Amino acid sequence: MTITITAFERSPDGGKGLARDTRVRWALEEVGQPYEVRLVSFKAMKEPAHLALHPFGQIPTYESGDLALFETGAIVFHIAQDHEGLLPEDANARARAITWMFAAVNTVEPPILGLANARLLERDKPWTNERLPILADRVRDRLDQLSTRLGGADWLDGAFSAGDLMMVSVLLRLRSSGLLDEFPNLASYVARGEARPAYQRAFAAQLAINSRS
Question: I need a labelling partner for 173 at 20 to 30 A (CA). Which of 57, 118, 121, 181 fits?
């Protein structure tokens, strides 16, 4: 069955790999599954056809046969369950990898998005200058905890898994903030994720769309 995902016709980040379709592309590349991409404009994202796939009018979506999914965590989880390469065979290790997937989107990503949104969308607000250091410290708290847990290991729990894929994708949002550089083991962890051939292919595919004239 053909897998089709949706992506921005023009990504707000200009193809830097921060749009969430990159996570899904990466997962599909890791498990060796071909896929097609349907590009949607910001206008089309709010129209009935797309809202039938994603009720919140966002990207990406995932379609395969009669199955339609939204939310990157759910999509990557489905890919990891259906194909070898992103979840360990051992039941306990598998459960831990899934736990790290949830931790990435539920615990680590929210304060990162809070900081990013304040910098991008609230720069003109009178409270922003006072609020930004508070938001940055919330991110540091999470990074400190994650750094302690990772220690000197290459990945969060043994071999690379969907948990690492989601966590690296989340941490990439800090690239321009400088906060990641305060935790060298996390910076190295993200660099290892970016160096994976599957990530490189996913990044290149997303960049190619945004590089078109």
Answer: 57
Nearest in space to 80 (alpha carbons), one of 26, 43, 41, 139? 26
CB 30 within 8 A of CB 165: yes
Confidence bin at 186 (pLDDT 50/70/90): very high
CA distances from 106 to 100, 125, 174, 194, 196 (A): 10, 27, 16, 22, 24
Residues of the domain holding 22:
3-85+198-210
Section 77-106 average pLDDT:
97
Same domain assignment for residues 56 and 14 = yes
pLDDT of 1 over the 90 cut:
no
Q: For residues 5 and 64, what is the distance between their CA atoms, to the nearest angstrom?
A: 9
Q: Output the CA torsion sign for 181, 172, 73, 160.
A: negative
What CATH number should be reported for the domain holding residue 74?
Answer: 3.40.30.10
Name the pTM for this structure: 0.93
Q: Which amino acid is at 113?
A: L
Distance CA 192, CA 194 (A): 5
Nearest to 58 by CA among 82, 24, 26: 24
Looking at the structure of the chain, the number of domains it has is 2
CA atoms within 13 A on the CB side of 35: 30
% of residues, the chain, pLDDT over 90: 79
